[in-house]
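Milestone 3.1: sequence recovery, worked example.
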């Protein structure tokens, strides 16, 4: 690395910015900007393949115990994506029965896929030798999704992790091989969602600090 590059890199890493009257580092800004953006706010602008690859590449740098790299994704676009919406809507209809059926909910299940430029199925590939407990691989998968989500947000894209019962587990829609399980969907699109106030209860209430 050239000396100039190194200095530039250090400057970017350490940059402290002013964001909503708070001093934040770039990392904090990126983390705090990540949010769930729902498909009803997606625009018709397609997300480019290169942007999708950039999200997937970010996912691929998640931490992974014993280097099992257990994250797998299926990118759905076009007819396949819309067919997934139909599956989710039909599953909802079956699940609630005639008495609990709401046409609005039925359409919303369909529309989420239709409104998205792409839907990414989030899949766990279990280590074939089960050298580590499943929770560790789920943790790595979640870290991969967080990377992907943060990258989407920093490219100005919207999306969120959805975990409909109908698709969670070894779902036949994806014809998953033995050892793979679907843990939900990431709906993705360009968006025009207005800024919404977001909240978390204080971190202090969730921490014990033993000195
Ligand atoms: C594992 C996981 C599954 C989720 N499943 C759903 C879901 O099925 N439906 C939904 O509306 N949001 C789902 N979410 C998104 C959360 O509702 C969202 O993260 C939460 O409201 C906080 O908002 P934020 O992401 O904007 O910070 C899921 C999030 C995670 C981490």
């Amino acid at each position: 690395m050239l000396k100039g590059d190194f200095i530039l890199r250090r400057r970017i890493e350490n940059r402290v910015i002013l964001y909503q009257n708070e001093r934040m580092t770039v990392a904090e800004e990126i983390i705090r900007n990540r949010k769930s953006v729902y498909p009803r706010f997606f625009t018709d602008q397609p997300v480019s393949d290169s942007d999708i690859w950039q999200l997937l590449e970010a996912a691929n740098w998640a931490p992974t115990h014993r280097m099992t790299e257990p994250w797998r994704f299926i990118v759905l676009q076009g007819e396949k994506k819309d067919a997934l919406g139909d599956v989710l809507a039909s599953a909802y209809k079956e699940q609630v029965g005639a008495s609990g059926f709401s046409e609005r909910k039925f359409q919303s299940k369909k529309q989420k896929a239709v409104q998205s430029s792409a839907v990414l199925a989030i899949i766990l590939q279990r280590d074939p030798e089960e050298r580590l407990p499943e929770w560790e691989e789920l943790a790595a998968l979640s870290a991969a999704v967080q990377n992907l989500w943060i990258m989407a947000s920093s490219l100005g894209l919207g999306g969120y992790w959805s975990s409909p019962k109908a698709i969670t587990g070894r779902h036949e829609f994806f014809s998953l091989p033995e050892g793979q399980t679907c843990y939900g969907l990431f709906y993705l699109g360009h968006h025009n969602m207005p800024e919404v106030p977001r909240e978390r209860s204080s971190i202090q209430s969730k921490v014990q600090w033993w000195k």
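The beta strands are 16-19, 22-25, 71-76, 118-125, 157-162, 180-190. The radius of gyration is 20 Å.
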